[in-house]
Amino acid sequence: MSTLESYKTQLLEQAAQVGALKFGNFTLKSGRKSPYFFNAGLMSDGTILHTVAQAYAATLCAAASDDDPMVNPFCDFDILFGPAYKGISLAACTALVLSSMHGRDVKFAYDRKEAKDHGEGGSVVGWPSGRNEKWRVVIVDDVMTTGLAASSAIKLVARQGGEVVGVVQLLDREEFSEIDNQGCKVSSVMKLESLLGGKGKVRSVLKMRDLVQWLEEKEAQGETTEEEKRSLQAMREYRDTYGVSSV
Asked: Are 140 and 168 contacting, i.e. CB atoms less than 8 angstroms apart?
């Protein structure tokens, strides 16, 4: 019996079925050779979008129950912001599920790649008006590689007069992106949390450890393909080389 949360197992199975999760040998933007690749853009039918939205919503609600509600950013936020383009559908579907299944009514907004100079104008769609205090915003991201998309979204939200209180991403690759001056491995998640003011500000639906555990459980049940068996060992080696510890 799987010890992974059911929504994680369902998401991984469906992602593999539609080709969003692939195993093999892939070259990342960083130049690293990765034994797996996750392309959220291929999760484009109603079934898997519903699964993804449920997973994001479950992650947000679990995060909201952690720690002290007075300091936890996920307990009280107003807007889900989806950076264009992949983040738009993810934020919209998650807002729908938060309302219909969890009774949490939040707004969703997104940016345009090109500012509009007619109609309502501007580069942000769905941003509410009519309140003096800052709107509290959670950014919805897919797979964070450099953290550039989330960092850009934080700046955009600030220009709108909002405050980004947290980020929720689909997959944390749990690997370092650089070595700091003290010789310590630093990941994009660590850098982003530092930018947002502390640990726990970035939450993930899935982590690399979940992919490894999912494959290990399939292997124990005799359900892995030969490609998955090779990839499982390659992922362990990749983690030993590039991995960082995260909670």
From this structure: yes
**Cα(231)–Cα(116) distance, rounded to whole angstroms?**
45
Structure-model confidence comparison of residues 72 and 110, the more confident one: 110
The one catalytic residue in 33, 116, 155, 199 is 116
What burial class does residue 107 get, using C-beta atoms within 10 Å of its C-beta: 0-12 exposed, 13-18 middle, 19+ buried?
middle
Mind listing the pLDDT tens digit for each residue in 157-208?
Answer: 999 989 999 999 999 999 998 888 888 889 989 999 998 988 889 999 999 9
Catalytic status, residue 116: yes
Is residue 24 within 8 Å of residue 35, measured between CB atoms? yes
CA dihedral 64, 69, 70, 74 (to 10 degrees): 0
Q: Check if 134 is active-site.
A: no
How many whole angstroms separate alpha carbon 165 and alpha carbon 73? 5
Q: Sheet with 163-172: list strands edge to edge.
A: 122-125, 107-116, 79-82, 136-143, 163-172, 202-207
Packed helices 86-102 and 46-64: angle between N→C axes, nearest 10 degrees: 70
Query: Which of the residues 118, 191, 207, 218 is marked catalytic?
Result: 118
